[in-house]
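Notes to self after the call with IL:
- keep both proteins in one doc
- input above output, always
- annotate only the second one for now

Protein 1:
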Amino acid sequence: MTQENAISINNLSKIYAGGKQALDDVSFNVPKGSIFGLLGPNGAGKSTLINILAGLVNKTSGSAEICGFDIHENPRNAKLNIGIVPQEIVFDPFFTPAETLELVAGLYGVPKAERKTMDLLRAVHLEDKAHAYSRTLSGGMKRRLLVAKAMVHSPPVIILDEPTAGVDIELRQQLWDYVVSLNKQGVTVVLTTHYLEEAEQLCDRIAIINHGKLIANKPTAELVGMAREKIVLLTLDRDIETAPQHDAFEKSQLISPNILEISYNKDRMNAGEILSVVQALGLSIVDVTTKEADLEDVFLNLTSDKMKAA
């Protein structure tokens, strides 16, 4: 692995007892200092991959390195270089947040003088709950406590597995602000999320896994550029009863009696040609709005294509 990669995964496979293949020959690198998105449908293999990196699941074949340390040959150093924020909310109800962070820091061998318990609680907006029982915290607070737990040993890599699931918008924004601030300090962030707009806004690069296989691994802007379908909203000069159909259209539907939404394949047509087709069908257009493709379009295209092929 070169120094430019925080995580290097090579030909990683996992077959569970019973024959289920969760990962199938997956290879990719996570560049140092990046925010890297790991996306895929439920059951795609994301959590298995994360659990292998965390040392909770044994790989069947292949290799993985964290900051140059092989997870099989040098598991202790590999674990010291990574912090994991799990998807499930796991906490001890009889410990306070401060006690929880002190305990976890001790398990990682962090000397008392070097622990940053209150700094971490302040960073995740839990300073005022430092000495309250963890069972009294809200769901969003418990998630933020998990982030603080993952950072007690100051790892250079942090993995967040669906960290904003069930968290309200304000708390999500606070969490992302903290993640971005960590990244600016040099921490490499690996993120899984079902909120695709978050991945599009935050991630420098995105890998997509489906049925245990890596089906995409590109810079975010390049991945969004892969969207084949584009949409135009056309305001007509009169109301119509049914949406016109044409071979040039992927889909045509009425949003209101005088607003027509047309989807088309940008590889076959451009917006001007679509407008010409509509006018040739006897309709007059008074306004045009285009919708740019986003990550959700790409994600659905890639995963549905693979599902059909599977």
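Protein 2 (the one to annotate):
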Amino acid sequence: MTCRILITGGAGFIGSHTCLVLLEQGHSLVVVDNFDNSSPEALRRVQELAASDALQLVEGDLRNPDVLDRAFRSGRPVDGVIHFAGLKAVGESVADPLRYWDVNLNGSRVLAAVMERHGCRTLVFSSTSTVYGEPEQFPLHEGMATAPVHPYAQTKLAVEQMLGALCRSGSWRVACLRYFNPVGAHPSGRIGEDPLGIPNNLFPFITQVAAGRRDKLRVFGQDYPTPDGTGIRDYLHVMDLAEAHGVTLTHLLNQEPPTQLTVNIGTGTGLSVLDVIKGFEQATGITIPYEVVARRPGDVPRLQACPRQAEAVLGWTARRGLVEMCRDGWAWQQANPMGYRSAP
């Protein structure tokens, strides 16, 4: 079954890879993006890789209902929505919480209202594993208590709760995917993660150091209660995550409403910052200099998924490991030393 899918934030890191997967499956897409932290070049390359022109772009802010109305009226009816658009930097959310509540929660509220108006009630939401807060038991499963410790995670959980209320009140089908830590890039090296300024995430920081854009990596804290003192995360190849979205949307469209799912998307393997540095060095032969600095506000010691529900309900499991994450992420950085702003 081929569908028409609306994707918010489709030019971003995860969004662009998901657009490629969906186009290759034969779906048609309408993407809404304001390019606040992304580039139109990503979508151009997605279409080039997919050899498809079945992607329409509506440029604008998610919080503007006129923009979303224009997207819904741009072609045949939309079968489902994948909602990526939002702000995602933990430290920034601590410094500017009002902006995060406005963009992440209010933007999602406007989207849901416009979907309701157009009779489209099938939604895959980009949530986060940070809603679990600072748990003491691992791996993390979906039935565990949520206790977000920073505004980024708090806004994501609030959206989950709003969508849950919609499912209980009417004929909605919603899946909230709690991502762990997506890294890597498409193996072609044509699309990848392109943060503006100094990266907030570990992996692009490592690749920029390897490329000589940064002199050394900053490791935020080595006094956590973990084996080597650095934070542990469940790193996930972005292509595995992109494929999870296609599988999830297909699953929802085959269910009778109301349907509500909350699913962890991770590998089940926890890697420390030093583990990732070592893995990158082994995969590329490049030494990564680093210095340990103070912890960042909002960071937690450890996050590691229990991915059993994703396999049981969706039939999805991560297929790529750290070697592929490092290889593909480095291929992207080498081919695009300044990201999408690189010269042809």
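Annotation: Residues 225 and 301 are 7 Å apart (CA to CA). The first strand starts at residue 4 and ends at 8.
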